Amino acid sequence: TTYELNGRTAVVTGAASGIGTEIARTLARSGAGVALLSRRADRVQDLAGKIAADGGRALAVAADVTADLTEVVETVHAGLGRVDLLINNAGVMLANPFSEGRMDEWRRMIDTNLTGLLNVTRAFSADLVAAGRDGTADLINVSSVGAHLTFPNYAVYTATKAAVTHLSANLRTEFAALGIRVTNLEPGLVSTELGDHMDNPEVEAHLAAWRAEVPPLSPADIADVVGFAASRPKQVNLRQLMVMPTVQA
Ligand code: NDP
């Protein structure tokens, strides 16, 4: 599906795989220039090449959302201009029983899913403010239905997502007055490599069993919703979107 996003300039974090890749492709197909931010340079370069081959505009930017982003912002400005559509999608999900005390995993999730999201938003907020003044600006945060669920082993992951959901709702009260729409997007199960970085075979087996029971959405299903939200008339803000596989309770 394509949407009307001609003249828009987007940044998609975590564009190297899964949901981020499909969001980038959908936005580019819809006419937006898209900066692809992820740590894996080869993956974003490959994606930029594919988008260009399909007639789209994309800029590969190897970047870590937890790092200083001064140069990243300069690179995006030089390559694509002012950003008016920021998709905070980069995230990690690591799960273990809390009693294992995996401070290393907790730190990675908090640093990426929450502090990283803040870092990127801070880096591009001047762009969003200027774009909001001139027309349309969007901040779309990829949280998770996990922000509302309770289940074992994922306490810290779900806490980071609950924080993102609450951040989106509160930031919206400031950004609305500046003409910046804030959309909080909460996917249910989606087929990606998100669960592939865990190191506990029991927790991994549980996730695999869950996925066998609930056929996950495809990343394109989520990208479709992002394209729709960003292309609404500027007075329309889809502020909270929970997108579930039909059979997931
Ligand atoms: P993936 O693992 O495929 O994508 C995550 C992306 O984040 C990767 O491309 C990775 O790229 C990037 N990333 C991770 N850490 C950093 C970092 N420090 N700096 C920059 N980029 C980073 O999984 P998904 O596509 O599923 O995940 C996308 C988002 O969707 C996440 O926020 C996730 O929590 C959320 N989500 C996913 C669900 C699912 O069922 N799959 C359900 C609900 C929410 P690289 O390694 O190159 O940096």
UniProtKB/TrEMBL annotation:
Coiled coil region boundaries: none
Could you tell me the keywords of this UniProt record?
Oxidoreductase
This protein's record includes keyword Oxidoreductase: yes
The record's similarity note reads: Belongs to the short-chain dehydrogenases/reductases (SDR) family.
Cross-referenced PANTHER family: DEHYDROGENASE/REDUCTASE SDR FAMILY MEMBER 11, DEHYDROGENASE_REDUCTASE SDR FAMILY MEMBER 11
Q: What InterPro entries does the annotation carry?
A: NAD(P)-bd_dom_sf, Sc_DH/Rdtase_CS, SDR_fam
Query: Mind listing the GO molecular function terms for this protein?
Result: oxidoreductase activity, acting on the CH-OH group of donors, NAD or NADP as acceptor
Q: Which Pfam families does this entry report, sorted A to Z?
A: adh_short
Protein's recorded name = NADP-dependent 3-hydroxy acid dehydrogenase YdfG
